[in-house]
Write a structure and sequence with these properties.
It contains ten helices and ten strands. By secondary structure, the protein is of the alpha/beta class. The chain has a single domain, classed as Rossmann fold (3-Layer(aba) Sandwich). The strands form three sheets. Strands 2-5-1-6-7-8 form a six-stranded parallel beta sheet, with helices on both faces. Strands 3-4 form a two-stranded parallel ribbon. Helix 1 packs parallel to helix 2 and helix 7 runs parallel beside helix 8. The relative contact order is 0.18. The site of magnesium ion has 4 residues, from helix 1.
């Protein structure tokens, strides 16, 4: 089974758009897919513009939203603090239960994080620990702008340190401003600095909500190469997860 964990170098870098593109490619290959946003913050539970609803639509799933996104918190904060200020506690066991139910009878599971890998879900757990807990292989989405090299390397090294396999990096164009020197060279730099990890670009989409234009961009991108690497990462050796 394919288990993807989509994380970002920051918030607002395009994780949901890239996740929808990945789900569309896998469905086009005939895979039964499920998607999950374990915690979403900064909106009301019934907000139709949620990442979770966008993912569920891309997955074409009839799974209940209470499993697709078990925890919705209204303050735009990291889950741990948003929950604390709402007088709630996030139960990793409850997230496990939803993940297990969604994972039944599918060929691929995609989990979208929130912000970056070290964003706290509880006082003890981050997305890094969640990815390990669910044996997800990481796809790192980075916004193509000045600073992307440092943010991407920090994220990839943190994942590697935690023995979470990194399937690849997606350098995402987040606007259609003219290319500056950083944006024109980030792809080449990251490909040189991460020789063992595919680094691919994803184009700016003026209307990312439009499924047809997203599907065209996904098909023309190199995202399939990242999906094709899934399943190579985790091996369980005497109870220890190793790379
Ligand atoms: Mg998102």
């Amino acid at each position: 089974m394919i288990r993807l964990g989509v994380t970002g170098t920051d918030t607002g870098v395009g994780k949901t758009t890239v996740s929808r593109a990945l789900l569309g490619l896998m469905r086009a290959d005939g895979l039964r897919v499920a998607a999950m946003k374990p915690v979403e913050t900064g909106l009301a539970a019934d907000d139709p513009a949620s990442d979770a609803r966008a993912l569920a639509a891309a997955a074409g799933t009839a799974a209940p939203m209470r499993d697709v996104c078990p925890i919705v918190l209204d303050e735009p904060l990291a889950p741990w603090m948003a929950a604390r200020r709402a007088g709630r506690a996030i139960s990793m066991d409850a997230l496990d239960g939803a993940h297990r139910r969604l994972s039944t009878d599918v060929d691929a599971m995609l989990v979208e994080g929130a912000g970056g890998v070290l964003v706290p879900i509880t006082e003890r757990d981050t997305y890094l620990t969640l990815f390990r807990r669910w044996a997800l292989e990481a796809i790192v989405v980075a916004a193509n702008r000045l600073g992307a090299i440092n943010h991407t390397l920090l994220t990839v090294y943190a994942l590697r340190d935690a023995a979470v396999p990194v399937l690849g990096v997606v350098l995402n164009e987040i606007d259609d401003a003219p290319l500056d020197a950083a944006r024109a060279t980030n792809l080449e730099s990251l490909q040189a600095l991460l020789p063992d990890t595919p680094v691919v670009s994803f184009p700016w989409l003026p209307a990312p909500a439009d499924a047809a234009s997203l599907a065209r961009a996904a098909a023309a991108s190199r995202l399939r190469e990242l999906i094709a690497r899934a399943g190579l990462g985790y091996s369980v050796d005497e109870g220890r997860v190793t790379r």
